[in-house]
Design a protein that fits this description.
4 domains; about 400 residues; about 45% helix; Beta-Lactamase; five-stranded antiparallel beta sheet; seven-stranded antiparallel beta sheet; rod-shaped
């Protein structure tokens, strides 16, 4: 009996000790779980502060965690989303097959791309999605953590900016003027098609090169390099123009007379960030101006000086004659029978006859003299720097009459 009593007492004591140890362990475990719950609650609260949608799914894509950001972004409350297949709930569309994404996620442990998802109200969103796979201690995949950022507005802004940029480029390539843009350092940022043709540089070749290398400007008379108009425009903070008589030396060395305007480009704060240069080939304009000037002073049929130019040369010759101690002679010529030829043979033959007479008269005088057609078959010859006033006839009187032309 005593032996049995002793054994029973020892067993009871051992049981009491085991119960006490178990109670301690349970208390410690409970405390640990409580602390872990607090940490998880804090982490969940922090995740809810994020504007991005944070979603945790199991390997069957069922939702285990649905952040406050996800509720706001997609319109589905957390109570409804929990346990639902995320792909079905959000009607997710990927740029490539899901099988390829799963292989990439399993191999690399993470994946990111742009996807399309739908809100509760049916609105499609452009989403930048980043996913990471979580594994347990044995290395088995157990969860997928996903962070989704709504980039719909940014994509729309980018698309609008792209369209606007394309419209601008098409417009600039459609105008007849050359357009060149630079940054604040004077390096090329844009050339339109006309600028490419005039400079001999392709846009891609010229990009980031100094403007002075692509747009070589010189004074046509002095051959000196024109100071950078971009630097002048930015320094003055206003539109400036190239000096007159300016030529562009093309990449192959060919020179083109140009005129241009340069304006600084400003940012929102009004600070200059570069310049835009608009220039044009004025070869045709200069040639037309010369042609107009020539036409205003020359006879259209024979090319001889007309009455206006003759008057100017006569006046100059009269002014210079006393200084050089020379005389001035003016000869008036017409041709008998010209009207009969013109009427009988036609105006084309009459015109050719007048042109032939004009050439003959020019061949009969010096380079310093002037042969002028006054109209019809009437010509006037101005002889300047005449040494003798008498010989084959007295020309002093003709000099006096020249002042009245």
């Amino acid at each position: 009996m005593n032996v049995e009593h002793g054994q029973r007492s020892r067993a009871e004591n051992e049981i009491l000790e085991l119960n006490a140890d178990l109670e301690i362990r349970v208390a410690e475990r409970t405390d640990a779980l409580e602390r872990q719950a607090v940490v998880l609650t804090e982490q969940a609260a922090l995740l809810d502060l994020a504007h991005d949608a944070i979603i945790v799914c199991d390997m069957a894509n069922r939702i285990l965690f649905w952040s406050r950001g996800a509720e706001i972004r997609y319109g589905w409350p957390s109570d409804f989303a929990m346990g639902v297949v995320a792909l079905d709930l959000l009607k997710t569309e990927f740029a490539k097959p899901m099988e390829e994404i799963e292989v990439e996620l399993a191999r690399q442990g993470n994946w990111e791309s742009e996807i399309s998802q739908q809100t509760r109200g049916g609105t499609r969103l452009s989403v930048a999605s980043r996913s990471a796979m979580q594994r347990d201690a044995a290395g088995r995949a157990v969860r997928i953590l996903t962070i989704n950022n709504d980039i719909t507005e940014r994509k729309e802004a980018q698309d609008a900016l792209f369209v606007e940029k394309e419209r601008t480029v098409v417009t600039l390539n459609s105008i007849v003027d050359a357009v060149l843009c630079t940054d604040i350092s004077g390096n090329i940022t844009f050339l339109n098609l006309v600028a490419e043709q005039m400079s001999g540089w392709r846009w891609k070749e010229a990009a980031a090169r100094p403007m002075t290398e692509v747009l070589k400007l010189r004074d046509a008379a002095s051959r000196e390099t024109i100071p950078s108009p971009m630097e002048i425009a930015i320094a003055k903070n206003q539109t400036v123009h190239l000096p007159a008589n300016c030529v562009l030396v093309r990449r192959d060395g060919y020179e083109i007379p140009v005129e241009d305007s340069v304006s600084p480009i400003h940012n929102r704060e009004g600070k200059a960030t570069g310049a835009v240069i608009v220039f044009r080939d004025v070869s045709a304009a200069q040639a037309m101006a010369l042609e107009l000037a020539h036409s205003a002073q020359h006879d259209f049929l024979t090319g001889l000086p007309n009455r206006m130019l003759l008057n100017d040369r006569v006046n100059q010759a009269i002014v210079l004659a006393p200084r050089h101690k020379k005389l001035v002679a003016v000869l008036f010529l017409d041709f008998d029978g010209f009207k009969h030829i013109n009427d009988s043979q036609g105006p084309l033959i009459g015109d050719k006859l007048l042109q032939s007479i004009a050439k003959r008269l020019e061949n009969c005088v010096r380079g310093s003299d002037t042969v002028s057609r006054q109209g019809g078959d009437e010509f006037v010859v101005l002889l300047s720097d005449v040494e003798q006033g008498r010989g084959h006839g007295d020309v002093s009187g003709q000099g006096k009459r020249a002042a009245k032309l």
